[in-house]
Design brief:
This protein is of the alpha+beta class. The protein has five helices and 16 strands. The protein has a single domain, classed as Metallo-beta-lactamase, Chain A, CATH 3.60.15.10. β2 and β3 form a beta hairpin.
Length: 250
Amino acid sequence: MTSLRDGYVDMPPTRLRQPGNRVFGDDLPQQVRLIDGNLRLSVNAFSIDDGTDVTLIDTGASNAWHPSMGLLPQAFREANIAVDRVRTIAFTHTHLDHIHGLILPNGHDAFPQLSRLLVPKEELDMFCAEARLQRFHERAEAFDGGQRIGANIEAIAAPGHEVGHTCFRITSEGETILVWGDIVHVPSIQFDQPEMTWEYDGDQEQARACRLRIMALAADNTYYIAGAHLDSPGVGRITRSGNSFRFDPL
C-alpha cells in the first residue's frame, strides 16, 4: 500500500465543533495546531497493489477546490506507479476532495484503464449529481458495507460524516490496515477528545458515535490506520488512553 498526497486544504478553526455544535472562540485548546490562523488538513489517497493491478481509495480534488490540492498525478510519478495500472477505484464518500481526481485539470481521464468505479450505495445519487463527472455516472457501481470489493478488501459502513461514509479493511499476511476516510479531520485534538466534531459532518451525533466505534475497532485489534486528513503520509496505529486515544504515526 502506498500513501499518495493530493495536497492540503486550510480551514478556519470554527469548522471544529464542540458537543452541541458549539464553535470555539478564544477557548481553542493550545494543542490544536494552526498555520497562519488556520487548520491545515492533509488530503491523502491510498493505493493497494496486488502485483497485477492497483486499487485506489479516493482520488483527491484535482482542480475542483483549492489550488493547494490536485497533486495526485505528481504523487503517482513520485511513487513510480503507472496510472494505467489503476483498474479499481473505491470512494470512502462523495465529497469533492475525494472524487474529482477522476478527471485531470485538462479534462482528460486521470485513470485511462479504469474498469470498476465503486461508490457507497447511499451516495450513488449524490455522485450522479456531479455534472463535471457526468461521463462516469453510468460506470459507477454501488456497494454496501460488509461487501468485499477485492480478495483482501472489505467495506465497513461508517456513516455520520456522510450518509454512506465507508472504511476499508485491508488484510494481508497477518497484518490489517483500516483506510478510514474522514473519521478524523483534526488529529491534534480528535484522538484526545474524539467527541469533537466537524462542521461538515452531515450528522454530528452519528459521526461522533462512529468515530468512537471505529477508533475502538482499530485500537482493540491493533490495526494500522490510514486517514484522508491525517498529516501526510497519514498512516499509523492508535491505542487507548483512558477514555481517549493516542495516535502513533508510522
